[in-house]
Amino acid sequence: MSSACPEGFKLIEEGLAKICIPDPELYRRSDGVFEPAWAPVFYNPAMITNRDITIVALRALGRSISLAVDSMASTGVRSIRMLLECPEVKHVIANDIDEDCVKIIEINAQLNNVSDRMEIHRLDCNELLYKLTRERRRADYVDIDPFGSPAPFLLAAFNAVMRRGVVGVTATDLAPLEGKYPRKLYRRYGIKGTKVLVSKSIAIRNLLAYMAKEAAKIDRVVKPLLAYWYRHYIRVYVEVDSGGLRASEALERCIGTIAYCNYCGYGRIVAEEDEAHIEELLRCPICGRQMAVIRDTWICRINDSEFTYQCFKEAEQCTSITLESKRIVLSVMCSSKVGDPLPIKISAIAKFLRRNMPKISTVIEKLNEIGYNAYRVLGTHDEIVTNAPYEEVLNIVRKI
Length: 400
Ligand SMILES: C[S@@+](CC[C@H](N)C(=O)[O-])C[C@H]1O[C@@H](n2cnc3c(N)ncnc32)[C@H](O)[C@@H]1O
Ligand SMILES: [Zn+2]
Prior knowledge:
Elements: E1 9-14, E2 17-22, H1 48-61, E3 68-70, H2 77-85, E4 92-95, H3 99-111, E5 118-121, H4 125-134, E6 139-144, H5 154-160, E7 161-171, H6 174-178, H7 182-189, H8 199-217, E8 220-230, E9 233-242, H9 244-254, E10 255-260, E11 267-270, H10 278-281, E12 292-298, H11 305-317, H12 323-337, E13 344-345, H13 346-353, H14 360-369, E14 374-376, E15 383-386, H15 390-399
The structure holds S-adenosylmethionine and zinc ion (ZN).
Zinc ion binds at residues 261, 263-264, 266, 284, 286-287, 289.
């Protein structure tokens, strides 16, 4: 089968697609681990979940997608999968700045018999998106999947997408987004913040805040549909609409401050109207310490409950995605169901109370017994999301 691929490439299957990828045997580190970044064309098997969930999300939209733009396509795997696995997707533009990528995208398109529905470009992502905007070829869906930060490409994406179209964005620059490098977070995303114990969920909010502000520059407004972090990446899907007034209102309502106590794990969201009392609100009501502060971040919902439920239903039925991806979708739906609160870190509460860490399942059971919903955060051993107030969780941990 590999003879379908050029020398140095190997045929694999992902979803319903057959794809030539750089032969992983040729790009192994001394410890035997495949290093995708060393290959001439980037293919990362650790991102199958990312692509699977694109399929789920586009199916969950439940509307025709006349034009999807895969602006950084590498092997073209996502483009091809969209065409093979989402009946709603009619036409895809697969673009990459790299010559080797474009050559392999052409081969992969032919291999999957989708060449007639796929247009291939070799342009800078922004150049492509502004070209489409200028030609008034508005996209129903734009995918931004760069190495590292998506910040330089978002304004172009918001220009190119049609009214009520969707933009899907990956960020792998987690260290700045989480606030590990506050100066870089400020420089790149305009957010003044620092790293806290639940930093991955803050990173999602920081990215959403940046997206909302970029969209607002051109009188567009973003509505988060689905947002999650998994292993080394963050992924968000937003619906983009038009309206300067609505964009202003969204910024007023949804950009605000998060205060988080790294000592006892208490967190609070400070809306604009509470900013007058900000000094008191930055003191932890549980332990009295000064809380860490993230300013100008996203304080509204990060998921749309109806949409995440549709995604869950699609993921359940979908036979071409991995079990891992189904688990992510389930976890996002659960977080959405309880209103996307900040996660509560049970190990921080236990440490504060000088107790052993209780079993997460016991904490969840006890919360259920008193009428709350609670779910473990996927990818963590000690975080839950719940509609219970922090104080209830504290009481439960105290009693166990
Ligand atoms: C992380 S990879 C994309 C992976 C791909 N979307 C997938 O799911 O397999 C990033 C790709 O962006 C391309 N790239 C980097 N800078 C770009 C730019 N300014 N415009 C267009 N493509 C770019 C790289 O050549 C690389 O193939
Ligand atoms: Zn505290």
